[in-house]
Amino acid sequence: xxxxxxxxxxxxxxxxxxxxxxxxxxxxxxxxxxxxxxxxxxxxxxxxxxxxxxxxxxxxxxxxxxxxxxxxxxxxxxxxxxxxxxxxxxxxxxxxxxxxxxxxxxxxxxxxxxxxxxxxxxxxxxxxxxxxxxxxxxx
Length: 139
Description:
The protein is α/β, with parallel strands linked by helices. It contains six helices and six strands; from the N terminus they run βααβααβαβββα. The chain has helices spanning 8-16, 21-31, 40-50, 59-72, 91-100, 125-130, and strands at 2-6, 34-38, 74-75, 104-106, 116-117, 120-123.
C-alpha cells in the first residue's frame, strides 16, 4: 500500500473534471492501491474550499465528500511544523506527508513545493498515474 497526501486542488480539479487525472487518483483511494493520509488541518481545508460557492457544491455535498475521504484515510497529527513551501498554507500538506512517511504528495501546484522532501516525492496527478511504484493504475 502506497501512502499519499492530496493537496486540496486535486479534489477541486476532480469535481470540475470528473474524468481527468485528479479524479482517477481519487478513484484509486477506493480501489485500494493507495492509502490517503490526512491531518485535521487538511480535512478542515478540504471542507472550507469545497464549500465555496464558486465550485457549485452544496455545503452538505462538500461535507459528505470530506466525510467519505476521512473514512478512507488514516488521520495523523503532525508534530513538527515545517516552513518549506513558497505558499505557507501548503506547509500543512508537507508536514502530514513527512510525518506519515508518505511516498507521494500529489498536487496541481508543483511550484509551491520542493521536488522532493525527505522521502516524499512531490508530483502532479498525471505523473502520479504513470508512476511504477507498485501502483496498479489500470482500470
